[in-house]
């Protein structure tokens, strides 16, 4: 006779537990309004779409429009499920558009890293900067002679897990992304300029921090007298790639819209994107260059000046084999590391991206000598580990190019 009472109590406990879980998710997602009943679907269930149509509850919808964020319908493995139009779910092939957009600027101009002395004149007295004991792998000393004869000597340690100091203005598409605090701006990730008003970066950078400012044309962000003519822009919109589901590493892309259009010039200009036939080029085995302001070693100190690191692109399957040995592999790459991910590093180890490089560009050169964006710094295991090359979002992945074009190139 007591059994029905126990069952009723259990049901009440289950309902209470569900309500508590819903409250926790609502608190964690303060930016999204979620009402009771919205998250009670499982993957594959029918669910209501805002327009009144019936959709399917899924991990991602696969559409590319920033204006249409699909409603949430459930939770699986600590990630939200979204209610997708059935047409999107059952399309055998996503619509892709990688034809080059119409632009009025030149991209990917040759950026040669050449060690030079810079001279300028004030009256008949010379002001110049001289580099002494230059070793791009280890360190260099910069001696500045002022007009009144004063010498200022500055010593720099060059690291970046096999990195070298980049020449000023050598990589004019490099961007710094930061948020304001009580002491100024905290530069926490990298990015890359792709046209006059949009910067591409890594979505995971903005899970816990807000992209508020982008700096272009910088060399050493701690030195206002470094000779770089940098410019700062407010971020007025952040557009995340649809389907990103932390802790999974797939689709780690975000687009940042700048508050005004960039005046393209020698030290600030966009990188090329691999449109059309360039998207079909297999760059496995090709040399690539990473630029960034990241740590010089794992859990080390970030550098304030731009570094460049030369590495090699490996087959994605090589990274999949290596990373499959890690405990986090099942949660981070449940479908394996495939062609949506680029694998790059040094065959002997010691050259790699590190903390602070996230969102930054990996570039290769095309047949015309232009620099083309190959990847965006996304994940890694340690820094410079021989057995674990760095992982980058593969920009040649056509759904990514289609999304970039839809968001950043349709309103230029």
TrEMBL record:
Keywords for the protein's UniProt record, in alphabetical order: Disulfide bond, Glycoprotein, Hydrolase, Protease, Secreted, Serine protease, Signal
Xref: SMART domains: Tryp_SPc
Signal sequence bounds: 1-32
Cellular component terms (Gene Ontology): extracellular space
Domain Peptidase S1: 160-409
GO molecular function annotation: serine-type endopeptidase activity
GO BP: any one term: proteolysis
Subcellular location: Secreted
Family: Belongs to the peptidase S1 family. CLIP subfamily.
Protein name (record): Clotting factor B
The organism of origin for this protein: Portunus trituberculatus (Swimming crab)
Origin organism lineage: Eukaryota, Metazoa, Ecdysozoa, Arthropoda, Crustacea
């Amino acid at each position: 006779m007591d059994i029905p009472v126990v069952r009723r109590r259990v049901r009440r406990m289950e309902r209470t537990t569900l309500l508590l879980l819903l409250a926790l998710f609502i608190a964690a997602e303060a930016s999204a309004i979620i009402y009771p009943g919205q998250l009670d679907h499982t993957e594959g269930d029918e669910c209501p779409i805002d327009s009144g149509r019936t959709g399917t509850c899924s991990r991602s919808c696969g559409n590319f429009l920033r204006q249409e964020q699909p409603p949430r319908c459930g939770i699986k493995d600590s990630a939200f499920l979204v209610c997708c139009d059935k047409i999107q779910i059952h399309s055998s092939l996503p619509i892709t558009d990688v034809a080059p957009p119409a632009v009025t600027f030149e991209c990917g101009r040759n950026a040669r890293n050449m060690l030079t002395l810079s001279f300028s004149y004030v009256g008949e007295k010379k002001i110049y900067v001289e580099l002494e004991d230059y070793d791009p792998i280890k360190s260099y000393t910069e001696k500045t002679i002022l007009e009144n004869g004063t010498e200022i000597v500055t010593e720099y340690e060059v690291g970046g897990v096999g990195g070298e100091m980049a020449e000023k203005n050598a990589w004019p598409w490099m961007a710094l992304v930061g948020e304001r605090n009580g002491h100024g701006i905290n530069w926490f990730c990298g990015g890359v300029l792709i046209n006059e008003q949009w910067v591409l970066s890594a979505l995971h950078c903005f899970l816990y921090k807000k992209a508020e400012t982008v700096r272009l044309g910088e060399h050493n962000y701690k030195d206002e007298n470094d000779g770089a003519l940098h410019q700062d822009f407010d971020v007025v919109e952040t557009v995340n790639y649809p389907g990103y589901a932390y802790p999974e590493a797939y689709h780690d892309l975000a687009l940042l819209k700048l508050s005004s259009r960039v005046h393209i010039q020698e030290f600030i200009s966009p990188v090329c994107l691999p449109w059309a036939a360039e998207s079909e080029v297999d760059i496995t085995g090709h040399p690539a260059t990473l630029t960034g302001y990241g740590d010089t070693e794992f859990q080390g100190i970030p550098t304030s000046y731009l570094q460049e690191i030369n590495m090699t692109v490996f087959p994605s399957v090589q990274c999949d084999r290596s990373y499959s040995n890690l405990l986090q592999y099942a949660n981070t790459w449940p479908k394996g590391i495939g062609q949506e991910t680029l694998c790059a590093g040094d065959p002997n180890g010691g050259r790699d991206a590190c903390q602070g490089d996230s969102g930054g560009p990996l570039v290769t050169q095309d047949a015309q000598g232009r620099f083309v964006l190959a990847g965006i710094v996304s994940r890694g295991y340690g820094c410079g580990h021989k057995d674990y090359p760095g992982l980058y979002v593969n920009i040649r992945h056509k759904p990514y190019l289609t999304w970039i074009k839809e968001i950043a190139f349709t309103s230029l």
